[in-house]
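ARCHIVE CARD
CATEGORY: sequence design from structure
SOURCE FIELD: tokenized fold
FIELD CONTENT:
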């Protein structure tokens, strides 16, 4: 089944307003046809970046959200607030949210449900730490993180999985093409058991561990790699667009 590749830039806690606008315009100008492209910007620049992307096919994304619709939750942002600014997709369960900021599996699942129920596309992040890989627990970790979605998603078009081996994020290390494909294939097989094979075949699975222009083509060529969730390399239009073009 042909799946349209999806390459999303995760800007994390980077850029200021001027550089965010410039980066967004650069991406919009060079984004090719045939690949879905998105950028997940800091909350405070969503409006400005959304305006910079107006008229382009590049989707606006958010890096996080809270699961309640409104209320006394100081500092939090709701799905409806994101939609009000034209956000199309949102991340949940990024490894930095899980392991640096201490989000529990229960909280990740609540956020994932809110994103889907609110009508945004969910990019649900899964992946293992180095000690878990070395202990042979990669697939068990990934399975447990997929379980956060049970009962939450009915439409495969509303879900994207991002496999991000934690040991390969921002370290310069990278899973080999074969290592990435093995886990991506397992994710699709697991989704086939959790939902059904047709559902699993429709969901796109991004690779999210230090993908760069020099390794993107090999990773994208794998059968079950349907794009990338790009960190550092998404902060410059040239490097990000080189990865996007490798997905065509």
């Amino acid at each position: 089944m042909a799946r349209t590749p999806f390459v999303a830039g995760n800007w994390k806690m980077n850029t200021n307003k001027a550089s965010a606008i410039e980066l967004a315009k650069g991406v919009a100008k060079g984004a090719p046809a045939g690949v879905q492209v998105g950028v997940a910007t800091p909350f405070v620049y969503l409006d400005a970046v959304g305006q910079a992307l107006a008229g382009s096919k590049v989707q606006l994304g958010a890096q996080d959200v809270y699961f309640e619709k409104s209320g006394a939750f100081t500092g939090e942002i709701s799905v409806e607030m994101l939609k009000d600014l034209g956000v199309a997709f949102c991340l949940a369960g990024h490894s930095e949210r899980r392991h640096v900021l201490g989000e529990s599996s229960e909280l990740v699942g609540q956020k994932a449900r809110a994103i889907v129920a609110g009508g945004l596309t969910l990019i649900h992040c899964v992946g293992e730490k180095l000690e878990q890989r070395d202990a042979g627990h990669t697939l068990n970790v990934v399975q447990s993180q997929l379980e956060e979605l049970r009962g939450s998603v009915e439409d495969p078009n509303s879900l994207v999985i991002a496999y991000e081996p934690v040991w390969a994020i921002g370290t310069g290390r990278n899973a080999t093409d074969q290592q990435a494909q093995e886990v991506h294939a397992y994710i699709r097989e697991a989704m086939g058991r959790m939902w059904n094979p047709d559902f699993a075949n429709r969901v796109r699975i991004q690779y999210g561990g230090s993908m760069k222009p020099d390794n993107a083509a090999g990773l994208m060529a794998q059968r079950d790699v349907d794009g990338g969730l790009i960190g550092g390399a998404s902060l410059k239009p040239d490097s990000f667009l080189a990865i996007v073009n490798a997905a065509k």
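CARD ANNOTATION: DSSP finds eleven helices and eight strands in the chain. Residues 6-12+37-47+57-246 form a domain with the TIM Barrel fold (CATH 3.20.20.70).
SHELF: design records, drawer C
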